[in-house]
Amino acid sequence: GWACIKNIHTVPHWLRHLDEELKQATPAEGFRLWLTSETDRNLYEVFLKKCNKVMFEPPSGLKYKMKLLLEQHGGAATKKRDYKSIKLYVGLFLLHSIVQERRSYVPQGWSKWYDFCESDLRTAMQLIRYTEGSNTLKIHWPLIQGLCEKVGYGGRIDNDNDFEKLELLLREFFDEKIMTSRWQPMFMNVSFPNSNHLEDYLKVVEQLPDTDTPNLYGIPASTNASRDVIFCRNTLKELRQSYFSGGSVQNYEKRIKPIINLWNKLMNATIATRLDSV
């Protein structure tokens, strides 16, 4: 048979013991051991090199993140078969997608990279279920905003300006206005209806652009040029580190120097194109 151990990133140092056990074990023919994990720098690298690795990366971009979230958690969203409940989840999914995608625009989106992840989403979903389970018919928006700020996403932020950005997003996606029949989220040219059917919300998500622009997140269009500059600088830095780290300098020069020259040309051309389009 096969065995599967999930979430090994929660016990990364245990992999050393697992490695020793597997060295001494004699597995049956056809046996396979599956391990699942999120990305973690503390995972035992020696052990990982012995494994066949399969990487699953969620789709990038607001449209594809929203489609994935609606497909994965559509059951929870439609459990009560009430448009108010569904819209609560739609607002949360938009918030979760946006806080993650804004990381592509450091330092304009956020001041730095924050590890917003699935656990933040699960925490917020629990808050929604708690709200739905209360006896009151009125949604307590400040409570949801405050808990998401202090317990959920805000727990990862350590910059005052970023806190203000998060507060703005929380007020946008957890507010009574999302319950209107033609709610149009900020910076988006789409409107979400009041519908009890998940398919109607998926149709709206399909109208979102396939490729994100900074404007979609309320960020100036010139941010793309800045992001390209940072990316190019980091790439050149890594190439230079490879060039000067050990081995034969002459050998590295033959292999790396043409790449650096080409990259410099591409960087200059890309930046010029971006600036012309702004």
TrEMBL record:
GO terms for molecular function: dynein intermediate chain binding; dynein light intermediate chain binding; minus-end-directed microtubule motor activity. One of its GO terms (biological process) is microtubule-based movement. Residues 87-221 form the Dynein heavy chain AAA lid domain. It holds the Pfam family Dynein_heavy. InterPro entries: AAA_lid_11, AAA_lid_11_sf, DHC, Dynein_heavy_D6_P-loop, P-loop_NTPase. It comes from the Eukaryota. Residues 2-54 form the Dynein heavy chain region D6 P-loop domain. GO terms for cellular component: dynein complex. This is Cytoplasmic dynein 2 heavy chain 1. It comes from Culex pipiens (House mosquito).
